[in-house]
Amino acid sequence: MAENQLAPYLPVLLQLLVAAGIGTGMIVLSAILGQRKYSRMKMQPYECGITPTGDAQHRFSVKFYLVAMLFILFDVEAIFLIPWAVVYRDLLKIPGAGLFGFWEMMVYIGIVLVGFFYIWKKGVLDWNTPEPSEVPNE
Questions:
Q1: 3-state SS, residue 2
Q2: CA gap 106, 116 in Å, rounded
Q3: pLDDT of residue 61
Q4: Cα-only R_g, the chain
Q5: CB count, 10 Å around CB of 108?
Q6: Would you say the pTM of this structure is higher than 0.85?
Q7: Do 46 and 70 meet the contact criterion of CB atoms below 8 Å apart?
Q8: What is the secondary structure of 53-101 as a DSSP string?
Q9: What's the CA gap between 114 and 120, in Å, rounded?
Q10: Angstrom distance (rounded) from CA 80 to CA 61
């Protein structure tokens, strides 16, 4: 008797259909039942309650972008610790694998710390010092 190989994926397909149906239903019902009372205040762009002032084209410090990229980098690196922590107890049951797994993770953490101390010493995380372009000429 040949069994359908796609049968295990039927719950996933069903979940996708239900999610798409709920999302579509919410949009359609809000369009049908929702009130449409437009006003000048309601149609203004939302600016967190603060009236926008100045030019929107001013330059941001590159430190904003560096910190954002470093956050993503170290966040992804920290995520690699979770699978190791989950299987570490099982590694201890295999002769020699527990100690090997431990030292491999110590090397990995050491590399991450070397990168962290490098950016720390370079001053990327120090927000009190002005950038060279911000120092006024005397």
A1: coil
A2: 15
A3: 73
A4: 27
A5: 14
A6: no
A7: no
A8: -S-TTPPPPHHHHHHHHHHHHHHHHHHTHHHHHHHHHHHHHSTTHHHHH
A9: 10
A10: 30
